[in-house]
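Chapter summary example: a protein plus zinc ion.
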Amino acid sequence: MGRILKAYETRFRSMLKQAGARRPEHGAEWLVARARRLSAANSLPLYATLTQVYQRLQRQVLSPKRVSATPWLRANGLQFWCDSGLGGLCRWLRAAGYDALWDPCIEDAELVRRARSGERILLTTDSLLMERRLVRDRVVPALWLPPTLKITEQMRLVIDEFHLTLRESRCMACGGQLRRVPRESVRERIPPKTWRWLDEYFICARCDQLFWRGTHWQRIRNEMQGLFPQAAAGGFES
Ligand SMILES: [Zn+2]
């Protein structure tokens, strides 16, 4: 917990500084102490209450500024770059219909550079990455995700922060757009059992992978619907 606690503290301090607090160090310590109190009072794990405190701070202090400071954020349809530890989240974002990129080997500096040139929002669990100048100055909009979160919790935070709605799924492998294709045209690529049961097939415009809506898709869709309360959109599998 020591390293994780430090990561939260770093984020708190930096957020308070951005918000113009006069004594960010003191404020960060106070927020950690508050999380400890909440944890003891409600018998919750410390990381859960730290996340609560973080989310509240994020909502109250930083979110409105971030959106207004970055005009392209809404204009380009919300695209994401996930850091090397967020491969799972990246796939979920694609399944929810968002163009998200991920590279397991990418260096921090390169990640920030690509997010900037591609006009994408950076998602990271690394509190030090948030201290880089371009991120700190909000040239590159970024959201820090506490390292203790499960994928569904990460998703919930991103949905909340950027007011995402559930869209038609994109390719889970690369984030490309899917287009419907006639069943006959892809017959040789469909397992016989699937062919007998399903009529709708889709191909990724970017990587050519074939998708259909099977049982795996149904599972993901059910989970998505829990995350997006008013959800009613499509998803796929291959
Ligand atoms: Zn693809």
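Key point: The mean pLDDT is 87.
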